[in-house]
């Protein structure tokens, strides 16, 4: 029996509305899968999820609920009003989901959006995001891959200041990245395009030498491992409709890859973590505190996450 764990993310955002709007597909999947929403005992609830405090032994739709808030704190869990309490709840759900995943064979993970700001304010000072937290929890390099109908994009560096990108690029574990791509269920010997860091991919060193000093050695490693890789590509034209298409794009920093990805894929994209022995996916959007409780949340990305996990052999 396959298990799908769902960390609740920040309960004051749109996550519970997403789950409510995805209820019919969730119920359909729960006929053959054990689906566990890992949540605190706060006031945001879904009646269709059976509340449990132990791991059930049969398929179904469950809310695995743990003590998380006092009575006074529960009053602070209000839609559209994030706080240190909601930040702590979202982080606790993630950590407990990881603990459960390690215990449950054939289990995979959907992480609903949380706020890095409010997790940090709650006391987790070194929190950088889901991908980095999973790398720490499983003690292995992890890589973010944005996955859509038409595009697959891996940012080689993730949630860091732009001024630190060059130094972080030098630290990319190319061997582990190649291994993670090779083991992915979603990629089969992809043709890879790597974006240049500098405008016009550096113009042969006229606008920077990172392409020659950092990216070309990385490309050589991929080629030596049997991958088809081309570049460095000028990032300002790599995603144009007339540009050559690749199965996978390697971007140098977060926004270089995610801006075109989100413009092209819209709400259908999902975030997949490579480098783990299971599949972790997340909707490609944030907590949307500004529309929480206004019945405007679009579950498209969550549904894509669910379909991806259900389709796994």
Automatic annotation (TrEMBL):
A Pfam family per the record: PdxA
Signal peptide per UniProt: none
SUPFAM superfamilies: Isocitrate/Isopropylmalate dehydrogenase-like (SSF53659)
Assigned keywords, A-Z: Metal-binding, NAD, Oxidoreductase
InterPro entries, sorted: PdxA_fam
Keyword Hydrolase on entry: no
Keyword NAD tagged: yes
GO terms for MF: metal ion binding; NAD binding; oxidoreductase activity
Top-level taxon of origin: Bacteria
PANTHER family: 4-HYDROXYTHREONINE-4-PHOSPHATE DEHYDROGENASE, D-THREONATE 4-PHOSPHATE DEHYDROGENASE
Name by which UniProt lists this protein: 4-hydroxythreonine-4-phosphate dehydrogenase
Organism encoding this protein: Leptospira ryugenii
Organism ancestry: Bacteria, Pseudomonadati, Spirochaetota, Spirochaetia, Leptospirales
Gene for this chain: pdxA
